[in-house]
Amino acid sequence: MAAIKTTQTPTSDSVKEIKPELPTVHRFYALYTYHANRPNPEDAGPMGDKKPSVKDFLQREATSNQDFSLSVIATDLVAEQETEVRDFIFKKLSRGTVYGGSGNVSRVDVGEETLSCYFYLLRQASRQEADIDQEGHPTYFYTSNNEYVVCLLTDDMNTVELFRPELDAYSEGLLAVLDNEASQADKIRHYLENWYKDAAEYVCRCTKRFKEDTAFIIHTALLDAKLEVVTTDQALKSDLTKFLQVCSLSDLLQHLSDTDSSHGTSGSSEPTLIDLDSSSDSCLQAGDKTTSQPDFVKLVIEGNVHRFENAYKSSFCDEWSNLMLTGDQKSPEFLRQVIEDCKLRTIQDLNNLKRLVRQAESDHYALYRAYTFLRDCGNGAVLLRHIWKDENTVSSLDTQSVLHVLEEFISETNGFTQAQV
13: Cβ–Cβ under 8 A, 6 or more apart, which residues? Predict the structure, then answer.
């Protein structure tokens, strides 16, 4: 009698076992003390009261770059890996291309892995010391009481590039821990272990916590309005502060304005993008009378419940938040890329509006195109807000007239499509 062939239906447990596992992302940290002697820029040296030239200072600075040492304070790298990272940092420092105040990003081979390495030079108050050269003249050096090099490593190459501003701030925050807890290595290690959680994953926590209401926070950030957060959860409040800052256009607009200024405007037909200046407040207030955008938004959080007061959101902000909610909400890199892409689109729309407004000073059809653009872009209130803040644009009375006409017409046609709470 032929044997009956049977098949076994896989259970949910067996299915789970054969599911492919997601690749593990490796993250590490290392903190070093940095001991170096550097010449004082005000070194009197053998020239008496006369200050040395820039060339003299750079020559002595280049020499002192070879006179330093690195000592590890805390790391989660194994000994061989730590040695390779220390050699890498030593080479960078010896070239004299690492400065305090801004982090650096580079690739480094650690064992069989190629990691993305963020490193930051921390410097505190310095003291002046003197030495006597062979001719009996005093040579002055400044040595910092506390100098450190922070290294944060990951095999995800996008993380350190996208979150470099947050990593700069996080590295600076380490000074307070070192000052207060210098003798407690565990607290230093705990701070460094949480670098990714605190400096990157806040975007995930905010998106998950506020879901569709994230659009209200985005709109508040785009307007540069003040957000008052009422909550006893200080960690959530800190996350919101960082999220609001990363969605704001202020730093990007100021950077682009500075770039335009450094290249000059005489040789270009393009208008200076944005010049954020407090002296434009009167023009901004004039624009706000018709757009009715808030300068102050309140967010009250009680447990799992939250409510906004005096908050708006536009269709563009809804689209922005939907992109974040429908994608990988567990990936800070994805969410941050969405934020940067949407900010770039806002900058492009602002440039288009500025060109149309300039053309509308002498072209009525351009005035109509400016109106339809504001009406249909989904972000008109934000664009008008920032164009009023551009002192280079609103300094022209003709431009102010065009903007007033646009705002009056928008107001007469029921304004922008926005949701308010």
Answer: none
Which residue is it, tokens 């070192």? 178
Residues whose CB is less than 8 angstroms from the CB of residue 328 and which lie 6 or more positions away in sequence, other chains included: 334, 335
Q: What are the backbone angles phi and psi of residue 224, rounded to the nearest 5°?
A: 60, 30
Nearest to 395 by CA among 371, 368, 361: 361
Q: Give the 3-state secondary structure of residue 296.
A: strand
Q: Give CA–CA dist 276/391, Å, rounded.
A: 7
Count CB neighbours of 290 within 10 A.
Answer: 18
Q: How many CA atoms lie within 13 A of 103 on its CB side?
A: 24
Q: Where are the beta strands (DSSP E) in 64-184?
A: 68-75, 104-110, 113-123, 126-132, 138-144, 147-154
What is residue 93's predicted lDDT score, i.e. its pLDDT?
A: 86
Q: Is the pTM of this model over 0.70?
A: yes
| Neighbouring residues of 100: CB distance < 8 A, sequence distance ≥ 6 | 121, 122, 123
The pair of structure tokens assigned to 167 is 């990593």
Tell me the C-alpha distance between 284 and 244, whole Å: 21
**Other CB atoms within 10 A of residue 299 CB:** 21
The strand order across the sheet containing 38-39 reads 38-39, 138-144, 126-132
The answer to whether the beta carbons of residues 298 and 404 sit under 8 Å apart is no
From the CB of residue 17, how many other CB atoms can be counted at a distance below 10 Å? 9
Q: Would you say 37 and 67 are in contact if contact means Cβ atoms under 8 Å apart?
A: yes
- Measured CA to CA, the distance from residue 355 to residue 82 in angstroms comes to 54
Rounded Cα gap, residues 110 and 224, in angstroms:
43
- Tokens 């806002």 correspond to what residue? 346
Question: Could you report the per-residue pLDDT of 251-279, keeping only the tens digit for each?
Answer: 777 765 555 555 544 433 333 333 333 33
Contact 388, 280 (CB under 8 A): yes
Non-local (6+) Cβ contacts of 119 within 8 A are: 89, 92, 98, 103, 104, 106, 149, 150, 151, 152
Instruction: Quick: pLDDT tens for 140-165.
Output: 544 446 789 999 999 888 899 999 99
Cα→Cα distances 361→2, 271, 388, 409, Å: 93, 14, 16, 16
